[in-house]
Amino acid sequence: MARLPRSAVPDLVPDPSWQPLYRVGAVAAGLAVVLYVVALVLFVVTPAPPPPSSGGAAMLEHVVSNRSAYVAKQVLWVAPNLLMIIIVLAIAVALAQVNKSYALTAGVIAVASWAVGFAWPTTGEGSLAMVVLSDRFVEAAMDAERVATVAGAELLLALNDLPAVVLGVLQTLGILLLAGLMTRGVFPKGLAWLGGVTGAIGIVAEALRPWLGWAYAVYGLLLFGWLIWVAVALGRLGSQTAPRVSSGAAM
Predict the structure, then answer these.
(1) CA 31, CA 19: separation in Å to the nearest integer?
(2) Which of 10, 18, 42, 193 has the fewest CB atoms within 10 Å of its CB?
(3) Has residue 89 been placed in a domain?
(4) Angle 57-61-62 (CA atoms, 0-180°, nearest 5)?
């Protein structure tokens, strides 16, 4: 059987029944950027927490003195996890027609990695559980009670860097895997390459996060750029209504 010329093959267009998901994904990507930027601004303008080497008591005292800012930052670091679940799910669904098995695998890894972030007790920059411990620390009437709350705070400090090595690497791996399929799908090639660079640098940045300091911001800037472009791309997919077929298609 003769192969159809390239001009006779219809362009890949995602299933229009998923358009609401693409539109929600576009909104989620834009909102995620806003939340991350606000969190970054708070990180810069509010007092920095003491280093982990200062101990649990110093951290609890910091939380007591900066409670509102501390809670706001923790919420702003956690809330985008839900948005990222929607974003990567929308991307995976849009890519399903290219390779269903690959899209499902990449989508499951990406969605699961962001979902697990809700179950982990720390965010990489603190923990909402630290706020509860700080209240108990202030209310403690006996030294033994304070010792217990300090021990709990030190456990959270010990767990704080682990998400970067475990969850962070998986999250960026999900972005990298989706980017690999984007090169053959309905998204701009430039977005695919940006996703690949973001994922690759993100894996290294998350694995080395405790030692990178401000250099970690390189990955953050790439992620912001990727999310903005994803918002535009998903918005366009959400507005498409029918496959485009070349006028030279064979009858």
Answers:
(1) 18
(2) 10
(3) yes
(4) 115
144 inside domain: no
Per the structure, the complete domain to which residue 107 belongs is given by 17-51+65-133+160-239
Sign of torsion over alpha carbons 234, 238, 240, 242: positive
247 class by beta-carbon count within 10 Å (0-12 exposed, 13-18 middle, 19+ buried) = exposed
DSSP 176-207: HHHHHHHTTSSS-HHHHHHHHHHHHHHHHHHH
For residue 203, is it within any domain? yes
Helices H, strands E: what count in the chain? 12, 0
In whole angstroms, give the CA distance from residue 18 to residue 150.
49
Q: How many CB atoms lie within 10 A of CB 151?
A: 11
Which two structure tokens, joined as six digits, stand for 111? Answer: 């969605």
Per this entry, what is the length of the chain?
251
Residue matched to tokens 């704080």: 160
In the chain, the number of structural domains is: 1
Residue 35 sits at the vertex; the CA angle it makes with 172 and 214, to the nearest 5 degrees, is 60
For 8-27, the pLDDT digits (tens) are: 334 556 677 899 999 999 99
Q: Are 85 and 93 in contact (CB under 8 A)?
A: no
pLDDT tens per residue across span 105-129? 999 999 998 998 888 777 777 888 8
